[in-house]
Amino acid sequence: MARKFIEKIVTANALLQGDVIYFTKQNVWSRNHQDAIIAHTIEQANELLEKAEQQQDIIVGAYLADVFLDEAKTASPLHFREIFRSKGPSNYFHGKQTKT
Question: How far apart are the first and last CA of the chain?
Fold first, then answer.
């Protein structure tokens, strides 16, 4: 039996600042996880990743990250790594750590 597709977003790091960023519907990048466009099929996910990777002057290390959709269809990181990345650097308080 085929596995159920897990929705995905495209994430990367900003080339100059190093911040974690997310690809949006407007084909631009945001530092807010909630702004990310959600891929509901593998075809959509691959298309978004391809578009994102064309912006090598802005980003580095783009990849697809799994997300969990709640009842309101709001995306949250699924894996610990993405939860950790969405909160920003952990070496001292940056402000993002207070967001859940």
Answer: 35
Query: CA-to-CA distance for 65 and 68, rounded, in angstroms?
Result: 10
How many Cβ atoms sit within 10 Å of the Cβ of residue 92? 6
pTM of the model: 0.82
- pLDDT-above-70 percentage for the chain: 86
Closest CA to 11 of 34, 2, 96, 1: 34
The residue type found at 91 is N
| Strand order through the sheet with 20-23 | 29-30, 20-23, 8-14, 59-69, 75-77
Dump pLDDT digits (tens) for 21-58. Answer: 999 999 999 999 999 999 999 999 999 999 999 999 99
Contacts of 65 (CB under 8 A, 6+ apart): 8, 9, 10, 11, 77, 78, 79, 82
Between CA 98 and CA 54 the distance in angstroms is: 33
Residue in this structure with the two tokens 């993002």, named with its chain if needed: 96
